[in-house]
């Protein structure tokens, strides 16, 4: 049967430099965050919608396979959108998704997968309303819908640098959707790269929703939210003036703060592995000895993200090969860089 509507979106992952950790209400952030949108780590999702008037039905295939666990999660998410998108109750939705990175590599995929799905759903909504897509309003709506599935996914809808959460002095920013960072950065920060060093692919014991909720009872929570907002302002300034030293010190402090909060929230929050710590030491030593502009950040897991400007690519790739791969699981790493954001693949933009 031919679907009444079909679309495919490719949407990237992102890595936060100022972390979102702690939320309230309907997935609203307790502090603003800032991230780098990636290029190579992405999800491609196709949505086929059949208008059957028989109540919402969801069929979900991940990498061509039926995954009842993923399907149940996606269905729960789409059900939460009923108020926002009442038309979905008339549709049987067939969703197919695949990631560019190995699912078992310990790389968080919720940002790319939720944003790709949100872009597909908002494309359906806009088609029904006969509204033009690819407008600022379309992307804000997609970011809003993505946020309801995963907070960090709201930022993947925008390329390069994105922020999410109200920021003093930036009137376009909001808690309900992310925005592209509209300040002019120094050339050093106009094409950044991210090497993801895979330390362990074992699944983590603490989910991000559990981690966010543990922040509600963390004794350092209010100091953390204050610190995040100060770090965000100082980080944006360092990027405008091209001050890599300050940038590196804030980015690394944010990563270690996230893990300090994790470790002190729950016994399962110790996510760093011996290999992660060895890598952090190697990176700091290398920077001290060579003056190379490179620093690390971490997601809520043991893998290390090595951030550096394009101009340092040769020296950093040599460093990865010679000193870092030995600490990685099966010598695995992902060579990624700043990307321009999501892309609709089919049907082509009119
Ligand atoms: O989007 P969530 O609910 O999976 O939370 C992700 C939080 C971090 O990845 C740890 C930080 C961030 O801002 O992306």
Provide structural commentary.
The structure is a single chain. The protein has helices spanning 68-80, 110-129, 136-149, 153-156, 208-214, 221-241, 244-263, 274-290, 313-324, and strands at 5-18, 23-24, 28-29, 33-51, 57-62, 65-66, 91-99, 161-164, 178-180, 192-197, 295-298, 304-309, 333-337, 343-346. A hairpin with a 3-residue loop joins strand 2 (23-24) and strand 3. The strands form three sheets. Strands 1, 4, 5, 6, 7, 8, 9 and 14 form an eight-stranded mixed beta sheet that branches. It has two domains: 5-185, Ribosomal Protein S5, domain 2 (2-Layer Sandwich); 193-337, GHMP kinase, C-terminal domain (Alpha-Beta Plaits, 2-Layer Sandwich). The protein is an alpha+beta fold and 350 residues long. The protein is globular, with a radius of gyration of 20 Å. Helix content is 37%, strand content 25%. Bound molecules: (3R)-3-hydroxy-3-methyl-5-(phosphonooxy)pentanoic acid. The site of (3R)-3-hydroxy-3-methyl-5-(phosphonooxy)pentanoic acid has 13 residues, from loops. (3R)-3-hydroxy-3-methyl-5-(phosphonooxy)pentanoic acid (PMV) binds next to loops.
| Largest β-sheet summary | 8 strands, mixed
Helix content: 25-40%
CATH architecture of the largest domain: 2-Layer Sandwich
What's the N-to-C terminus distance?
24 Å
Mean pLDDT: 95
What general form does the structure show? Answer: globular
Number of helices: 9
- Which regions contain 5 or more consecutive residues with pLDDT less than 50? none
Strand content: 15-25%
Element string (H = helix, E = strand): EEEEEEHEHHHEEEHHHHEEHEE
